[in-house]
Write a structure and sequence with these properties.
The chain has 232 residues and is α+β, with helices and mostly antiparallel strands. It is built from nine helices and four strands, in the order βαβαββααααααα. The chain has a four-stranded mixed beta sheet, covered by helices on one side. Helix 1 crosses helix 6 (160-169), helix 4 runs antiparallel to helix 5 and helix 4 (91-121) runs parallel beside helix 6. The model has no long low-confidence stretch (mean pLDDT 95).
Length: 232
Amino acid sequence: MIDLYYWTTPNGHKITLFLEETGLPYTIVPINIGKGDQFQPDFLKVSPNNRIPAMVDRAPADGGEPLSLFESGAILLYLAEKTGQFMPSTLRGRSDVLQWLFWQMGGLGPMAGQNHHFNTYAQEKIPYAIDRYVRETGRLYGVLNKQLADREFIAHDYSIADMACYPWIVPHERQDQNLNDFPHLKRWFDAIAARPATRRAYEKAEQINTQPSVNDEASRKLLFGQDASTIK
């Protein structure tokens, strides 16, 4: 039913978390971003931004032609609406989930991503950039820690907001963050890590990719050397 165009990044993990939780049948189409699969014409038809994840639903609710989607937040929202799961039905509950989903998409993901880039991947170590993004990542951890002080999950019940945020906390050590500094966040993180669906999702990731995506100069250029000329 679902074709998931996927690689083993935090954004990719978001969707396998959802699919494993709900049991929706899906097939993974690996897109090795370190080898340039994201520039293949068939993939670009689904994801014009040449980024994973992307998805094709071959049985959309309207009964029409297969429906394709890119952007992990849009995919999570679509799947929640399709299944009626992990999204509250009330106005206030839905609003709570959506604001934290967008918080992840606009804040936690981009800032932690820059943290990864300047801390791990950049060949030139720029102290200002490293400090800037490590500190901002820590601030965002603090925001999430405060939100979790009086609730089990981000919007009370486990939802797509948690699925969006969790994969970006998994590499906390690489982000120079200590979860012990954020006790509510750590409790939440451990609870999600223990979920059977989370374990299955990350086990699949290990089967698909055992090597880092950036492991030579060619992959570095593919991932970090793009500009307007790469959009054809």
